[in-house]
Design brief:
The structure holds 2 protein chains of 2 kinds.
Chain A lengths: L7 H16 L8 H9 L8 H23 L12 H16 L4 H15 L3 H5 L5 H39 L1
Chain B lengths: L4 E4 L3 H13 L5 E4 L2 H9 L7 E5 L7 H11 L7 E6 L6 H8 L3 E4 L4 H39 L3
Parallel strand pairs in B: 1-2, 1-3, 3-4, 4-5
The chains are: A mainly alpha, B alpha/beta.
């Protein structure tokens, strides 16, 4: 059975649904006004700007999370405990780059884990409320959303371009 | 004269976004460095004259506050840019600490479009005031030279 290509309206409706879920304050995925300000920076001169930022973020965030996993593993402990100061510095970086998208949920988890580092509460750092495990999940959800959102936006742009080209041919 | 901006920020994403924000406001002459020590060297360089310095507080090697203090000590006032310290942390007392270090302003990251536009308006007024001060000083100099020439019978 051949799958019918989606119309522009269908694709835009799918994207609007994605936005609605992301901006839903219960989900705490994205802050609407901050995310939209980022989208507004995209210009015809640099049509891949947001995609580029998303790719940079997905890579950087995973690198920073890997650093944190290493810091909390016992073979990297110094005098029997993690380097909490370095962990806080890594969290500060992750919070900063997440704020570019208005990723409220990830920023909040960074803050919670930072508090556990200040309190040197290793067990909660690793697992539990405000732990690295939770932060990892939040970043994974955000990264998946951003990748799907930019892919959807590219699809919409490609279809608009094709339809615009089709209109010129008809003329 | 074209506005020159220096961005001091160690996060690549924040760097990219700030440069893009500048360009959407028509500012293309933007230099980027990754820490306060590099920012200090750029500002000290007599070949550079920046109108605006957007500098992150937390950076490796030399942070934004230390760089600001060094600039206030080592760079002539007339060559100093408008110094804006940026931070994602936003703790109570931060603003006072930044201003005490010699920054002109403190903003939280990410910078909103509104905050950026307010900053450019302020920068416009600052540059206009500076230009006026230079013009007044030049006029005063001309008057003194003329008076001196008259007194010596030239």
């Amino acid at each position: 059975m051949v799958e019918m290509a989606k119309t522009l309206k269908e694709l835009e409706s799918e994207r609007a649904t994605m936005e609605e879920e992301a901006f839903d304050k219960k989900n705490k995925l994205l802050n609407q006004s901050q995310f939209q300000e980022l989208l507004e920076l995209q210009t015809d001169e640099e049509p891949d700007f947001v995609e580029e930022i998303v790719e940079m973020y997905i890579t950087d965030a995973q690198d920073l999370l890997s650093e944190l996993h290493v810091l909390f593993s016992e073979d990297k402990f110094i005098e029997g405990k993690p380097d909490y100061n370095l962990a806080r510095a890594v969290l500060h970086k992750l919070k900063g780059s997440s704020s570019t998208f208005g990723a409220d949920g990830v920023q909040q988890k960074c803050e919670e884990l930072r508090e556990h580092c200040i309190n040197e509460d290793l067990d909660t750092c690793r697992d539990g409320e405000g732990s690295l495990a939770q932060l990892q999940r939040n970043v994974d959800i955000l990264s998946e959303f951003l990748a799907k959102y930019t892919a959807k936006t590219k699809e919409i742009h490609a279809l608009k371009t094709a339809e615009g080209g089709g209109a010129e041919e008809e003329e | 004269a074209e506005v020159r901006v220096l961005v001091a920020e160690d996060d690549m994403i924040s760097q990219r976004v700030m440069v893009k924000m500048m360009s959407t406001h028509g500012i293309r002459n933007v230099d980027v460095v990754g820490n306060g020590a590099e920012a200090l060297e750029r500002v000290k360089d007599a070949g550079n004259c920046y109108n605006l310095l957007l500098m992150d507080w937390n950076m490796p090697t030399m942070d934004g506050l230390a760089a600001t203090q060094a600039m206030r000590r080592e760079v002539p006032a007339e060559r100093l840019p408008h110094i804006v310290i940026l931070t994602a942390a936003a703790m109570s007392g931060d603003r006072e600490q930044c201003l005490a270090a010699g920054a002109d302003e403190y903003l939280t990251k990410p910078i909103s479009r509104q905050a950026m536009e307010a900053l450019f308006r302020k920068l416009g007024r600052r540059e206009a005031d500076k230009a006026e001060a230079v013009a007044v000083a030049a006029a005063a100099d001309d008057k003194n030279v003329a008076a001196a020439a008259g007194a010596s019978g030239v």
